[in-house]
Amino acid sequence: MVERHKISEEELRELIGDPEEVYKGLREFQKSARKLSAQEKEIMELYPEQWIGFVRGRVEANAPTREAVLRELDAKGVDRADVILQFITRKPRIHIH
Amino acid sequence: MIRGRVGPITGIPYVEGYLDLPGLNASGRVTFLVDTGADTTLLLPSGLDLLGINYANLPGRPDQSASIGGVVPAKKVPAVISFTGDRQNLYVYRMDISVLEPRAELNEWPSLLGIDLLRNWRMRYSPSRYSLSFSVDTADHIYERPP
Q: Do A34 and B5 touch (CB under 8 A)?
């Protein structure tokens, strides 16, 4: 049994807007993200040590810096809400909290 | 059930969510790296860029994040994070998250989903099967879509 409803339906709409729109947008974003994972091998070969902007199932921009990727995406008129921004590397990363 | 994803080469576990920062007029879809070693959920510079947030102008309580790379200044802000479930529903959580000050050493990192949120779920992570899923124990709200 899931404990829930510390936030009322009315309050939810005040906080996030229309939950139906959030749901649909997030679902599409997840589909795109799964394609990114499925293509990980190819993407690592094509864009090592690069930032990529992955949009709706494909690499829309790549560059050595995040800022350059965002500039390219903005120039193309891509909505940032649809963008997965990821640094492609095989180097191990350590981050202990 | 919430489904994440696993890279077949790296084995890194990710999950996508919708992040809203009430009062800042900022919201958007965010990819989180699932990090059971993080005490708190962290929004990193790549996430800030996509949400259009300038750290310098961000109100919030002073905070800090300690890692192997040292202590990084941060700001604690109220947030609402939503995730879609298999049953056409949306699991919603209200919590404070830490927004890290942009620094060169953080540049390559995605935002992190920490134990403060993960404690609401039971995680099943199978890198060999490229699968990641979460059973939900608690949520602050569950939005169920109309049939």
A: yes
- For residue B92, is it left (φ>0), alpha (ψ between -120 and 50) or beta? beta
**Do residue A38 and residue B94 have CB atoms under 8 angstroms apart?**
no
**Are the C-beta atoms of residues A29 and B29 closer than 8 Å to each other?**
yes
| Partner-chain residue, chosen from A2, A17, A40, that has the shortest CB–CB distance to B136 | A2
Q: Which residues contact B145 (CB under 8 A, 6 or more apart)?
A: A20, A23, B88, B89, B90
DSSP state of B138: B
Which of the 8 DSSP states describes residue A18?
Answer: -
Nearest by Cα to A53 from A64, A61, A45, A43: A61
Look at A80 and B28 and tell me if their CB atoms are within 8 Å: yes
User: Which pLDDT tens digit goes with each residue over B32-61?
Assistant: 999 998 999 999 988 888 998 888 888 878
Contacts B20 to A, Cβ<8 Å: 15-16
